[in-house]
Amino acid sequence: MADSTPSWKKNDEEDEDEELDETNYIAQKDAVLFAIEVSDSMLTRPPPSDSKNADTDSPTLTAIQCAYQIMQQRIISSPKDMMGVLLFGTEKSKFQEEDASSRGSSTYPHCYLLSDLNVPSAEDVKELKKIIEEPEEADELLVPTKEAVSMGNLLFCANQIFTTRAPNFGSRRLFIISDNDDPHPGDKSARSQATVRAKDLYDLGVTIELFPISHPDHDFDRSKFYDDIIYRDPAEESDTVPGRTNFKSSGDGISLLSNLVSDINSKQVAKRTLFSNLPFEIGPGFKISVKGYNLLQRQVPARSCYVWMDGEEPQIALGESSRMEEDSAKVVEKAEIKKAYKFGGTQVLFTPEEQKELKNFGPPGLRIIGFKLQSMLPFWASIKKSTFIYPSEEDYVGSTRVFSALWKKLLDDKKMGVAWYIARSNANPQLVAILPSPEKLDENTNAQTFPAGLWLYPLPFADDLRNPPDQPAPVIAPDNIVDPMIKIVQQLQLPKAVYDPSKYPNPSLQWHYRILQAMALDEATPEQSDDKTIPKYRQINKRCGEYIHQWGLLLEEQFRLFEKERRTNRGPESEGPPPKKARTTKTESLEGLSIDDLKKAATSGSLGKHSVAELKGWLASKGLSSSGKKQDLIDRMEQWIEDN
């Protein structure tokens, strides 16, 4: 049974790190089942076109290619999630034949389970790749039935797959790809059965997403059938839901595959909460509840593991860590350890209860303490990434309406809220700016690229500020250098002058997984990575190469004038090389210092002037541990000096 306790209410007494650990939220399991229709119209190739980007494959084969690409992506981005591919409308039938408890394929006629719902494996990817690259395999499998296909039967089949393969998954989605907007014209019984089966899926927690395919001579009409079977939670409905998209299967140069992949990518990752039902106090006695989402997370290669090969079959070796005494190598139990902080050369010990009380600044919550203009927020004030929040109706009915009113007011007046924020029990309090964001949609697919809502933007405290280093006065460039550069910058702007991170995959990460994929699927090792961050030098030269050349000549001329003027200001004696800087007195070696000298150095704080290597050498000469950061080494030296 899932734990119903909100994440912010759970005490993490053993966790010394004050940061909220997000790995648990990232690793929540998700199951996606593709249901792809096989029919005469879905197997018809688009008409020929002169466009280089025109579609050449049928919608069914394109959808399988889409599933193939998404499966490759999910192996990398979500290795614990499940994915499956179910074909419906086929002459052949197949349903979990490897499962001894299966009731047989005759139960679900014209449903072919191409890839069972499971964590994607190399064999699953190879199976889809074989259908895409080998026409004989596709021709043998993709044979449409002459009989009517029951959508109720398809939905019941999907129900059984989710129930048997992913019974406890928090997110389960069924992606239906079809061009038939009315599969049961005039058959009220079949429509009623499909509606009941769809409601069963909804009650099970399965979300149905439709990806309709339109043809040049026919636009998909959802209202004929699918509006009755695709259920939505009323609490999730809002004005910010993106418009619906119908994908065109045509040779007009707009790739059906790229549109499908783009739209499915926008829906394939379920929103995963960092906290649920956090109290949001807008005024005295006026509270709503919100959920927090992590929409930005640095992606790194999956953690490598060690494999034990001496058994009957390879097994992953699990590591364990323990604390040991430095002298006797005896294992120290957790109950024997006390936490201490160093203050004035002495160690102040705390019991677990005292340490817990030190971290207690009140219950978790978000409380507005005032409002300011957004223009007053300096660009350098970002110290951590922001958290996206959205209303929740579970604790306070009406939260969505109040949240929407606050969001609209902040957006229209270009203001921000300043709030006191405690994310979870025993977490350090933060000051955050509450910033509104408008919704942004993709121009091609009309899919949401940026959500409408509020963001918690962490603000620095006075203790977090650092003084900038001393810098020489900047050299101001003359206008005849600045003006040509403005023209160059305008020519080299990104599309719409906006950086879109979805266009630039991490080349190091992609290359890492591309090599893994080639080894797992027995593919040829690629010669080089596809690095989208490399500048397009030919286009740059074509657009403003002449401007850059002329600007370089101007810069060289101005530099000569600048150097001449500087020599003139220095006088005739400055013709030679600049004077050398006076050498500073070198810090005396630690080895030559007496105990009194060491005490003076510790008192004046000059131990930090010595290098890490020198500190480690001194500690090693005294038989002390030389591990740790520089401050740890200094602390260890000061403790020795104090004891001696």
- Strand tally: 21
What is the global morphology? globular
Tell me, rounded to a whole number, the average pLDDT: 80
Report the portion of residues in β strands.
Answer: 15-25%
Q: How does the helix and strand content classify structurally?
A: alpha+beta
How helix-rich are the residues, as a percent range? 25-40%
Rg computed from alpha carbons, rounded to a whole number of angstroms: 32 Å
> How far do the termini sit from each other?
59 Å
Low-confidence stretches: 1-27, 98-104, 234-243, 250-254
Number of helices: 15
The biggest sheet, with number of strands, parallel, antiparallel or mixed sense and barrel status, is:
7 strands, mixed, barrel
Strand order, main sheet: write it out.
7-8-16-21-18-17-15
Structural account:
- The strands form 6 sheets. Strands 7-8-16-21-18-17-15 form a 7-stranded mixed beta barrel. The chain has a 6-stranded mixed sheet with strand order 3-2-1-4-5-6, with helices on both faces. A two-stranded antiparallel sheet has the order 9-10.
- Strand 11 (323-324) and strand 12 form a beta hairpin.
- The chain is 32% helix and 19% strand.
- The chain is α+β, with helices and mostly antiparallel strands.
- The radius of gyration is 32 Å and the shape is globular.
